[in-house]
Design brief:
By secondary structure, the protein is mostly helical. It is built from 11 helices and no strands. The chain starts with a helix and ends with a helix.
């Protein structure tokens, strides 16, 4: 009987081990398959990005020269020239938008995260989400009615205001989420040593959330720099140097829109070069934000 019992136990153990090996091999096969699927999805996701970057670089790189950054666009049908006025105009409008959107967006997020409670915060966050989904052309029409009509003409100020409306939701949402990520224990420790709520927010919470805040600001600036419809309604365009903040102002995105549809080869080349400059500006903004974050943290 003991021999039979030991043989049964051995057989049961052997079968159990075989089942575990089968299940282990199946799980390993499933993990490998899912890893391959995830990698393929990642490649499919990144393929359009690299394809766009490659095509824009190939089309616009040959037009990069000193004239591109120092001269005005040529008249239709003529070659040469550059896009210096559009680069300067883009910096002006995006700079105005940043001066408006960044302080208001960060302060609004600080209020939501640190001082607001209950239904007010929920409704403000809901309104921010709705605003982030508003088409950019609506922001352009809004700024047109508010600034262009009342100021009597197109201007960089109106363009900056329209871009600020588009930047605000991104800055508010990212800053709000960044402040909520900061551990609550840090706030309690600051209050415990005698700091007020305002001192805690300004000297403890905000510095800890600066990396995420800068990331949100970078995303907002990148979106604003590439917008076209709001600037057509507000800043319009100009083939000359910007004459002031209250005058029609050229921009890279509007220049690309205008030159890409004309039948002249020189203007099309400038449109590709302007597209490449826009990509470089976004990349440079991201690099500067990472550098500033690293210097602040360490």
């Amino acid at each position: 009987m003991s021999n039979i019992s030991s043989e049964g136990q051995t057989s049961f153990a052997s079968n159990t081990g075989s089942l575990k090996k089968v299940k282990g091999s199946q799980q390993s096969l499933l993990n490998s398959a899912m890893t391959i699927v995830a990698g393929a999805c990642l490649a499919i996701t990144l393929l359009p990005l690299f394809a766009v970057l490659y095509y824009v670089t190939v089309q616009g790189f040959n037009r990069l020269n000193l004239d591109l950054f120092t001269k005005l666009p040529p008249p239709p049908g003529l070659s040469g020239g550059g896009i210096a006025n559009a680069i300067l105009g883009t910096l002006m409008t995006v700079g105005i938008a940043s001066l408006i959107a960044v302080p208001f967006g960060v302060l609004a997020a600080v209020y939501l995260s640190e001082f607001s409670k209950g239904s007010i915060a929920r409704w403000v966050r809901f309104a921010t989400n709705v605003l982030s989904g508003v088409p950019s052309i609506i922001a352009g029409v809004f700024a047109y009615g508010l600034f262009v009509v009342n100021m009597g003409g197109f201007s960089a100020i109106a363009g900056g205001a329209a871009l600020a409306v588009l930047m605000l939701p991104t800055i508010v949402r990212t800053t709000d989420e960044a402040l909520q990520i900061v551990p609550q224990d840090i706030r309690w420790a600051s209050v415990g040593v005698g700091a007020s709520n305002y001192q805690t927010v300004l000297q403890v919470v905000l510095p800890a959330a600066i990396p995420a805040i800068l990331t949100g600001v970078t995303l907002a600036i990148a979106r604003a720099a590439g917008e076209t419809a709001p600037l057509i309604f507000t800043a319009l365009n100009s083939p000359f140097w910007p004459a002031g903040f209250d005058k029609p102002t050229p921009s890279l995105s509007v220049l690309v829109y205008n030159f890409a549809t004309v039948p002249f080869k020189a203007q099309k080349e400038l449109a590709w070069a302007a597209s490449l400059i826009l990509v470089f500006m976004v990349l440079l903004t991201s690099i500067l934000s990472r550098w500033a974050t690293r210097q602040k943290v360490y």
